[in-house]
Amino acid sequence: MFRYSMVLSLLITSACINLSRAADESRFTKTGSRSQYVHWIDLYDAEDRIIDPSSETAAPYSPQFTCGRCHDYAAIAGGHHFNAIRKDAAPGRPGEPWIWTDPRTGTQIPLSYRGWPGTYDPGALGISARDFVLKFGRQLPGGGPGEAAAAAPKAAPDAAKPKEGSKDEPSKAAKEAQRWKLSGLLNVDCMICHGNSHQYSQEAWWNQIQRENFAWAPTAALGLGSVEGDVSKLPDDFDPAQAKADSRHKLPSTKYTPARINGEKKVFFDVVRKSNDNACYYCHSTLYVGEEAPPEWTRDEDVHLRAGFTCADCHSNEIAHHTVRGFEGEVHPTGQDVATLSCRGCHMNDGHGGGRMGAPKPLHRGLPPVHLEKLSCTACHCGPEPKEHTALVHTSMAHGLGIPSHEAGPQPPGIATSVMLRGGDDMLYPHRIVWPAFWAKKTGDAIVPFNPDEVYEATRKTLRVRRGSGFRETMMEAKLSADDKKAILGERTGVKDEELTAEEKAKLEQAIAERGRESWRQKLVAALGDLKKLVTAADAEPVLVSAGKVYRLSGEDDVESFEHDAAKPYTWKFGHDVRPARLSLGAKGCYDCHTLGAPLFESIVTASGQAPDDAPITRTMHQMAGYDKLKLDAWAVSFMGRTAFKYFGYASMGVVGLVLLAYTLLGIVGLFPSARRQ
In the chain, where are the structural domains located? Predict the structure, then answer.
């Protein structure tokens, strides 16, 4: 009995030791050193098979199985940059949405899987994960929708191949499932952020995605090898197993660069632990556009970057890649207190320690404390200084900054900045703002957007927007007939354009504009008529949402407009670029904000969409923020005589002081009778 007890005790002890070791150890390796590990590593493909990079039939490497051999890929894929499509992911504070922009239909609709108010879920609009990748892949880091391939519906083994256009033709889901098999998944590409060689090409990444070469994109973008072939040109029923028999169609091939391979057939990855700013800029750059935009070379960098900081110093993360966003009140998924990585937490302390990375504590001399209760730090220190009109800005996510383009000037979608709005804490924050524009179905008081591709198919013969042309310009296209010109110019009809007077040119331009407006009205009526076939319910009607208005048919050949919540702009807070203290609002004195017509409250915000609009909706900043104009003006007027009032106050205090001094002396004299007799 004793012998069995000893054996049992040894087994239990051994199990406890192994469990303890399992708790301390992990299959994922780490060095624990601040020095950089040199990555000469084996490559693995999407089937977790080792790759011979010298082979002529080598497969593209998979970040999931190559990087995932040492790093927790599943945890990384759940990070903030990759988890938007997951319904169990916390949505966080509303941020910049993806904006589906389609010049063919005048669409600019904010999309988000996170359910932010004012955005639309792509899936609810019939926009599949694959559609999303093909539309926005230029700024996607992989993962998320890139790994959301759906399984194809099972078909009977003896089912005949359906004819194209027949009712038995495969569904979109079935077609996409087959396309996913050909293109492979778009993994989270670690080297987008962690590459240190400056060889990573986002342009190559986007080119491969456009060709539907999802699995090959990481290899081509990093420059590990060249890729030949184009999945987008393969038929839906292509079978890779029959590729050798069909010389016309083949999956892309990979040829790895010999210089990157050592004698052990390992490949060198130049990896950096903390991402450099260049990687961040590709998705988080802004460009001011328009006639009043300052030249790019005259703009200053964020004051923190000028001081030598990097983006990752404040926007840091752990292995799960839950990147700290840095706003006040942020709750990090790890439960870690990240308050010191917000503006106030770092500079103002507020009980959190603060002073990270040598941050100075601002003195705010002469600033009444109430300002710190009503204004966020970013209201005074971030973005462009308020002007008479809000500025137009292009962003990486909305306009594809970073990809070479010949387009110049403002392009849709129109994003305005900085718009001062109050948050849920009643504090003022700077926002960027975009007005949605889309064709939709209105049922009762509910407006639901149509899928942009469906709209294009239904209206392309009516709208006829040519490739490379803008929606507004196409809708307003108009020409004057010879009779029209004769009615305007009379006997000078045949005169060359350069010989016309300014008055004559103005009359012609006015006539063309009127003809253009009539052309737009006719096309709008016809397009809404085209969309009736997408509306099946008897109590529903097609509408157009654009620039804060909703347009619908009024009678047979006219339209009317009205305002609706669906047409309201989507706004999001931002925190860069940070200006230095001497360029902040209030640095020049109270009159920066407290004067009649101060841009902080009187700057004009104009709604913008792709559709023509002769009378766009305009709002002043105080209207957008919900401030009382009368109170603001009364307060501003009180500041006009503030200096004189101060001197008057000082003089009054002096007079009162002298009177008090005189009575004090008289009182002292009254205490001594002998002095009073003398």
Answer: 36-91+123-153+168-273, 278-435+571-636, 445-568, 648-677
